[in-house]
Amino acid sequence: MGNRSQRNTFDTWDLQRLQQATGLPQQQLVQLYQRFQEEAGRDGQISKSEFRDFYEELGQGNASHRAIDQVFRAFDRDNSGRLNFEEFVSAVIMLNQQSNPYDRVSFLIDQHNPNASQGYITPEYGQHVFSRMNDFYGTNVDPYDAWSQLDNGQGYVSSNQFAEYLANHPQYSQFQY
């Protein structure tokens, strides 16, 4: 849920947390990465139809093609019609109904948060995440208003507080795929 320059690459991800967020065993995640690399080819990216095929093979649930397409669009930030592996995994995490919303949101926030090691969210990043959540869910939560409900004047909120807020926000928690 961040821009590409801030994303961690797969080899720096915490496989245990990734397992928790995706519901997939660590060995399957490694195999998925290897298979993705083979399928993606030189550019390291897959198309929407390849994404659908991968997702259906994972057996992660009964998401409709509409839901899968919506998730694909939300994570295809440059509108190239293609996803790299990090975007692919982020999309799989958001579609995963086997883990709870807090774990999904928390993992993605931490993966893309430039201040993750300090454990806080800045207003800029928080508002960016709200905008991305709006894209993902097709909602129109005002990022500035939502941030002002969280920030008590410190200029930041804890990552845990932010993830909890998102996981329980009525506009975001009403959607199930």
From TrEMBL:
GO molecular function: calcium ion binding
Record flagged with keyword Calcium: yes
All copies of domain EF-hand, residue ranges: 63-98
CDD domains registered for this protein in UniProt: EFh
One Pfam family it belongs to: EF-hand_7
Signal peptide limits: none
Protein name: EF-hand domain-containing protein
